[in-house]
Predict the structure.
Amino acid sequence: MPWTHYIAWFFGGAFLANAIPHFVSGMLGRAFQSPFAKPSGRGLSSSTVNVLWGFLNLVFSYLLLCHVGEFDLRAADDAMALGLGMILMGVMMARHFGRFHGGNATVAK
């Protein structure tokens, strides 16, 4: 298996993880940060923009996972490439969006 397939599946996982908060926030009717806001990535975009951006991320994920090589979710190495992309993007988004929504603050006990 070419290593480029694993790279594509890694980014497929990253696009999949990025699709979730945008699509869900948009479906809930909530404004959310997007690359199209002013300032980019910090300002809020409308719920419609977020649904469209989330859907576009799903399309990119689909193309990378289903049209590059023979992705098999039951194969550990294939799933690991997908999972690593998802967890890395998820942590990066948690840190980025946490600045705006209070998610980076530690809770004192």
